[in-house]
Protein 1
Amino acid sequence: MTQNFKLFGFWRSIATYRVRIGLSLKGQAFEESSVDLLKGDQFEQSFRQMNAQANVPVMLFGENMLSQSMAILEYLEEVYPEPALLPTDPLERARIRAFSFITIADTHPLTVPRIRKYLADNFNASDEDIGNWAQNWIRLALDAMEQKLSERTTSTTYCFTDQPSFADIALTAQTRAAGVFDLKLDQWPLVSAIEQKCLELDAFSRHTPQKMFAALQN
Ligand SMILES: N[C@@H](CCC(=O)N[C@@H](CS)C(=O)NCC(=O)O)C(=O)O
């Protein structure tokens, strides 16, 4: 089954990047419209009518709208089971989700535009303060990911599997965001090796925030 997927996203948005990777891994074509988060387009009435949370990604297909990158990835996994982005074993699936939520649930929300703006508006935080803030939370996420990867007892091509899983999508989105916030990945060799492996795949490398930004300049 193919569906007409339309994505509302932003070049810098790692939540949108997660969905781009998921759609690409599942072989699903999509069109993307930009919602300029730095200009505040997410607060426009027309966008809020689609997503009351005023954030991206939003995925439209047929009469349907979905938000929240992990919910979208789970939907894609259920509707397009191949290639699988989760293993079959329930415990392994839960572990991969837990690893993914290090960034999706805990770190990424601390670094989004609304938080950065709140820090600037209410605490007089400078651009440098905000950069340090973002780097701090991203470092903690990468430390935890590095530790969890070092605890693996079997050798796999990607984080925990021999084909990409949600964990690899979450990891690569976070490492690409580290680049946006000027963090070098040398301190996290296992994380960095997985990122490199993932970026060998077109589904991961075609729509990175960095490439989406470069495309805007042309
Ligand atoms: N948990 C959500 C996060 C969505 C989110 O906050 N997206 C950011 C961009 S990555 C956004 O649209 N932020 C708008 C803002 O902060 O004003 C998901 O994974 O989809």
Note: The chain has ten helices and four strands.
Protein 2
Amino acid sequence: MANAWCMPGGKIAVYTGLLKITKNTNALSVVMGHEIAHAVAKHSVERMSHAITLNVGTQIADVFLGGAINRTRQTIGSNTGFDIFKLGIMNPFGRKQETEADYMGLIFSSLSGYDIRESVKLWERMAEKNKGKEPPQFLSTHPSSKNRIKNLQGWMDEVIIKYPPIKA
Ligand SMILES: [Zn+2]
């Protein structure tokens, strides 16, 4: 299992399986920075309140549509195993948070004195590991590795210059 996540309350869990991909502390700092950013930005709270709004909103809409949303949800769910509430509707929101966490994470990592250029190599290794398994971007809450790497490369120089290591 190669994963890391931020628990409500701000504790961060890293699976040892992920260490095979991070390989070094620079890459691990990018992962930690990303998860810390979720905690700092209170994304889990945002996500929860968004989910509640979404549920109430779609329930009201479905009354007018005579249950069409729920029927579609069940049909797609039984055919593909995916829940459209989590995929189609939740995702644009999830991806925005992921991109935000990537950007803030780079800053935290750079401030802490790590070499953030490793972030690109980290996501290349991740893509290599997930080869053939990577779902199309619209199916995933995470940006595709290609978009992610493109973003990181775009931010790299600016972050290195604007957020140099803090000397303790
Ligand atoms: Zn994330």
Note: The pocket of zinc ion is lined by residues 34, 38, 98, 101 (CB under 6 Å).
